[in-house]
Amino acid sequence: PAKRRRFWDEILSIILVLYCWILLHFSCNLNMLANSSLISSNFSTLLFLRNQKVATRISLANCDKIKKNPPKTQFLKNSISRFGVKGSLLYVCHSSLNLQNQQDPSMEKDLAGSTEENELGGGSNNGDQWDWTTSFVLFGLWSGLMYYVFFLAPNQTPLTDVYFLKKLLNLKGDDGFRMNEVLVGLWYIMGLWPLVYSMLLLPTARSSKGGIPVWPFLVLSCFGGAYVLIPYFALWKPPPPPVEETELQRLPLNLLESKLTAGITMAAGLGIIFYAGLSSGDVWKEFYQYFRESRFVHATSIDFSLLSAFAPFWIYNDMTARKWYDKGSWLLPLSVIPFLGPALYLLLRPSLPTVPALSSPTSTEEK
Questions:
Q1: What is the C-alpha to C-alpha distance for residues 50 and 78, in angstroms, rounded to an integer?
Q2: Which of 1, 2, 19, 336 has the most Cβ atoms closer than 10 angstroms to its Cβ?
């Protein structure tokens, strides 16, 4: 009926608005993590710089020695703006600090180490105060999608859905029925999406220490697609841990970072999309009829749309972790092209920055 169709059009519009808000919210959080002018109080250790009139607290990483022996610092022009951002305090310091007379080598060593670690994507922000508003919104979106798929999606052809699955899985022989070319293309492109997301999420979208591992969600996404990945998106806590050189030489990272894998994925996607896209208008009308009647086709089409919609954010995250935003930002508008945009980025992106293999605790103490 027309009223029901209008109702679901409004629901889909609300979901699209929520997705745009989530994408903007995630981007703002990443920008705050990458912006050096914002000094967050979420770090685990604190550096106290004091003079007679002003007591300013600045958060830095790896500052145990500095905390024990705070340096004497002269403040020339202090103007501190305090903002309350999502439950945590951020201090923007507009002051010029005279740190040239400091002669503590231990402090310089710690500062250099923390700077190098942050540049390589490690950082010591454990995400304890990561804003949970986005998580609640994502879980709400996921719950609404699950309810819609299982209870509200059209389900007029359950026997036909079983038949389609058997045909697509090659469990039925040639019985004279010709499968819809668009449906076949959608089925095979959904088989490539888990590989694309594995290349985007490993390792630059791993959660920080104490976080939930990403690999179980990637494995299950081969069967559940975005319906399985969205819970991980809600639980994700940046920044990712640093990547060691030896990790890139082992499976699965050496496979996921390979240009050969990216090239094969791109070529396979192009072939599938041309196969479905060049179909006649009658084939597309038939697919649209399936979409309106079949729960299997309906849920799979929504899954494809969700994976395409979330891809630009994870491309931005991966691009930022690789320090390639200045040169590769032109790929962000192209990433909105379903599948082909992310596949092109994976083919062109640079190698991942790494850190040397960590030594054992015994050898570190001896040094």
A1: 12
A2: 19
